[in-house]
Design the sequence.
C-alpha cells in the first residue's frame, strides 16, 4: 500500500513544529528499506491535499489546539473526524475536508477519509518564536512516532 507520512507545522513556532519533530522521529524508526514516504510541510488546505495525490494511505502528524490542561496529550482520528484547528481555514485557502472533496471531484487519486489518519498532540504554545517544543509536547514526540509505526504495521 503506497503510504505517505506528512509532518505538518512551522518548526520556528514552538509547539507548532511538533508534527515535523514527530516525522523526523518516524524516519529514525523505519527500517532502511522502508517504502514509506516521509515528508515535512508547512502548508494546509489545497497544497496539503496535493501532497496526498497518488497515495493510498496518508498519516498526518500535527499540533492541535489544546483544551486547558491537555498539553502533551496525543490523539488519533481519521480525516473524516477532523476538528476545527487554528489553521484549518483561511481567507486564502480552504480547510482540508473541502480540499479533499474538491480534489476528488476533479478526479485526483486521493485516499479515502478513513485512510487519512491524523496523529496529533495538544499544543501549549504555537505563537512564540522558538525552535524548542514545550516540555510536555516534547515528551509526547516518541508516543506520536510510536502511533505511526503501529498504524503502518497494522496495514501490512
Sequence:
Amino acid at each position: 500500500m503506497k503510504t505517505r507520512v506528512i509532518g505538518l507545522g512551522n518548526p520556528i513556532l514552538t509547539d507548532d513544529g511538533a508534527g515535523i519533530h514527530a516525522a523526523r522521529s518516524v524516519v529514525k524508526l523505519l527500517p532502511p528499506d522502508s517504502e514509506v514516504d516521509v515528508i515535512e510541510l508547512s502548508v494546509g488546505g489545497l497544497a496539503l491535499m496535493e501532497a496526498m495525490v497518488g497515495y493510498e494511505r496518508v498519516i498526518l502528524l500535527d499540533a492541535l489546539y489544546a483544551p486547558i490542561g491537555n498539553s502533551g496529550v496525543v490523539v488519533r482520528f481519521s480525516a473524516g473526524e477532523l476538528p476545527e484547528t487554528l489553521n484549518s481555514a483561511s481567507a486564502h485557502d480552504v480547510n482540508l475536508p473541502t480540499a479533499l472533496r474538491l480534489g476528488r471531484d476533479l478526479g485526483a487519486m486521493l485516499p479515502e477519509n478513513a485512510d487519512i489518519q491524523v496523529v496529533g498532540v495538544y499544543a501549549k504554545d504555537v505563537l512564540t518564536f522558538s525552535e524548542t517544543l514545550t516540555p510536555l509536547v516534547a515528551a509526547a514526540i516518541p508516543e506520536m512516532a510510536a502511533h505511526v509505526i503501529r498504524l503502518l504495521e497494522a496495514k501490512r
